[in-house]
């Protein structure tokens, strides 16, 4: 199935490449938020099962993929900017659900903390509120390669750490993709990683209390970087949080093997199909949102 593509003007500042997978029988639309250094292609496995039940929206950040040619890259985007872009795309496509992967969880949860009226449920994959030792080591080494604009070594790092459980085909794709990024993409990620590593408090959990919809957190059993144990911290800060651990999977979940794909399919479609436990009351959007990062 080929998506309908469009470049959407956002806030009169950004022009964002979007892909819309239409399902004529679907009553709901879900928007997907990429992880760092990735494009819409990273969701190819996820779209296969989500499009059976929903209209699916993908997009590239202004600095990435097919959005790059339409934007100025003189300054890195802040995560607050990415959250604002997401909020506008939610309205543009009238999205009902949200799914994020890895670092996309930062912008996703910033956006959710503003209580977008349309969003009924969210799925946050491979994301943690904690910077554990494995993640700090990964980020610190990655920062060196990003500063040097060394895409070859950065790709090798990704494949040997968070991507260690990926099939060899996907590792080759990762290496080819990461090693051929534009310099502004490395600078973008460098700015974000540097900020994360040097914040006094890397995750402002108090902003999460504003999220008033059901949120499902999905993590891989063997993911040492955003572990199932660490993500349980969200239970103390959200009104309605659920947790699923994908058996025998690492950071990349449904990309790693067929059993993980099937388990992700079951967990996500089951959660999104549930009737809400309560009716959401109207609450005005918050005027400001505190920073959250992992």
From TrEMBL:
Keywords: Hydrolase. GO terms for molecular function: hydrolase activity. This is Alpha/beta fold hydrolase. The keyword Transmembrane does not apply. Transmembrane segments: none annotated. Residues 29-257 form the AB hydrolase-1 domain. Signal peptide: none annotated. The keyword Amino-acid biosynthesis does not apply.
């Amino acid at each position: 199935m080929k998506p309908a593509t469009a470049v959407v003007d956002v806030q009169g500042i950004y022009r964002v490449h979007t892909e819309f997978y239409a399902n004529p029988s679907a009553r709901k639309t879900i928007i997907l938020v990429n992880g760092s250094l990735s494009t819409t292609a990273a969701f190819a496995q996820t779209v296969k099962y989500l499009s059976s039940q929903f209209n699916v929206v993908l997009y590239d950040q202004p600095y990435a993929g097919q959005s790059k040619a339409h934007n100025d890259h003189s300054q890195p985007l802040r995560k607050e900017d990415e959250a604002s872009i997401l909020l506008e795309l939610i309205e543009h496509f009238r999205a009902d659900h949200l799914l994020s992967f890895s670092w996309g969880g930062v912008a996703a949860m910033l956006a959710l903390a503003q209580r977008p009226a349309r969003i009924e449920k969210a799925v946050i994959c491979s994301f943690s509120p904690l910077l554990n030792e494995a993640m700090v080591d990964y980020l610190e080494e990655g920062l060196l390669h990003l500063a040097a604009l060394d895409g070859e070594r950065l790709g090798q790092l990704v494949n040997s750490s968070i991507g260690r459980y990926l099939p060899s085909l996907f590792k080759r794709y990762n290496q080819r993709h990461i090693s051929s990024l534009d310099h502004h993409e490395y600078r973008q990620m460098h700015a974000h990683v540097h900020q994360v590593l040097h914040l006094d408090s890397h995750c402002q959990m108090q902003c999460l209390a504003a999220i008033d919809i059901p949120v499902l957190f999905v993590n891989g059993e063997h993911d040492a970087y955003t572990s199932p144990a660490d993500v349980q911290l969200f239970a103390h800060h959200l009104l309605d949080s659920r947790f699923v651990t994908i058996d025998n999977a690492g950071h990349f979940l449904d990309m790693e093997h067929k059993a993980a794909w099937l388990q992700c399919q079951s967990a996500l479609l089951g959660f999104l199909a549930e009737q809400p436990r309560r009716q959401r009351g109207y609450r005005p959007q918050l005027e400001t949102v505190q920073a959250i990062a992992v």
